[in-house]
Amino acid sequence: MQAMVIREWGGPEVLQPEQFPDPKVPAGHVVVELRASAVNWHDIIVRRVGRGFPLPRILGIDGAGLRRDNGEEVIIYPGLRWGGHDEAPGEGFEILGDISPGTYAELVSVPEENVFPKPRALSWEYAAALPTAGITAYRALFTRAQLRRGETVLVLGAGGGVSTFAISLAAAAGARVVVSSSSPEKLARVRELGAAHGVLQSDENWPQQVRELTGGVDVVVDGVGSDLPDSLDCLRPGGRLVIFGASGGTTATLDVPRLYFIHASILATSLGSPRDFVELLKSIEREEWRPVIDSTRPLDDVADAHRRMEAREHFGKLVLSIA
Prior knowledge:
The chain is of the alpha/beta class. The protein has helices at 41-49, 124-129, 131-144, 161-172, 184-190, 206-214, 228-234, 256-261, 274-287, 302-310, and strands at residues 2-5, 16-19, 29-39, 62-67, 73-76, 79-80, 94-95, 107-111, 115-117, 152-155, 176-181, 197-200, 217-222, 235-243, 265-268, 293-298, 317-321.
């Protein structure tokens, strides 16, 4: 099969096209003939430093295609061996494309329990854009933060994959959505997704602007990490802060008395359970909304997609067409 293979860790140039052996098919697995894949920030982190994973490596978490055994159109749930508890993944959990070969390829082998019928209304490209960012946003908003209709949610970092999903999902659920971004252009675009207001994170007083607009938000969805103090400043008393990433840095210093005086909850999540994925697919069918796609390019051009994501030039998902 054709695949984009890494034989050393480093920059985007380490992603090279190769003819690679077809995947093995252990008992209980199926082979998916991929029609589209997508790029995630997780791919870039692994590509840069390896995280101890073996080489050679095929990255890629997201994918949609045809089951080779029966021709069914499927979308792949990217969490392997989540376990029996919805609260958190169990021992042995991994993400597709880490140890197991991923979706930057024509074929991928996954457990049969990881394939679901592709939503009828989604093209291959939209389906491939959905899994990782969609399930992360869904779990952050509804499973962890328990967002309710009529509440106000602040989504940090408008323009990324998870944030664009979070805006669309929250707006579809009847929440009032406020966003922050470092880009005026991206702030203008998120209104199309249902955002009511936006603030520039380059303004030092942006948390104050959020409070003036909202009186304090019920939920903050934070993939930045290093902005936790500012996120807390945006919450109303009793509000919930849910963290799904650390794109701005891995450490933050909190004012602990501030945290308990406003009775705030800090929640954390990554990816989501199979049940979250099923609920996400139901919402696609019910609400008929679509993922936001920044651009689509051939699989061989995945290095360009990585460069665009690292430069933070994208708005929405970077999709790879495979067939």
